[in-house]
Amino acid sequence: KIHISGISKIQSIDIQMAKEMNCSIKLLGYFKQTENGLDARVHPAILSSSHLLSNVNDVLNAVYMETSALGSTLLTGAGAGKLPTASAVVGDLIYIANHLAHGQANPPKMGYYAQNNAAKLMPFEEVKSSYYLRFTALDEVGVLASITHSLSENGISIKSIIQKDVVDPGQVNIIVLTHTTQEKKVQAAIDKLKGSSSLVSEPQLIRFAE
Predict the structure, then answer these.
(1) Distance (Å, rounded) from C-alpha 89 to C-alpha 85?
(2) Which one of 1, 55, 76, 170 is separated from 62 by 20 to 30 angstroms, measured CA to CA?
């Protein structure tokens, strides 16, 4: 029931731009209580290099928590790759086997969901964030104007615009960084631009981590 998107659409230009902004791109899972329900989602996000999660690399996984008593806390450990994953699976099997060998009740199933206590999810369209938008377009008159017009029509405030050349002649990457806005506004602007003959590929969207 939650929004999930992976890293398959991330390209080298996006990683390069993140580095130029002194940031990195990480695949994050969000879980946050709000007045409008539970904000739960999984997607790539751009983090500042000063964020605790920005230095979690290689086989390391991490959980970053903001609590009332401890403040910001980071728990990290090996969790990716064949050996850490195999170790975790074998550990679970041994745990279950010990329960069965001693005649104990089966361990409880993982998960918090219960039919009579389902979480109220905040609609993903209501999520607020600032955005990195990349448009690969033909290098011709009026392209930038059409992009900014679509964003303006949907009430999206632009923080900065960067233009980068691409390998193919006659094409450019236009990177737009926005101020904080709603997901539904950004999606509406992108949907309108998808039909433009000036774009040579689908627009790229990456959210900034809050």
Answers:
(1) 6
(2) 1
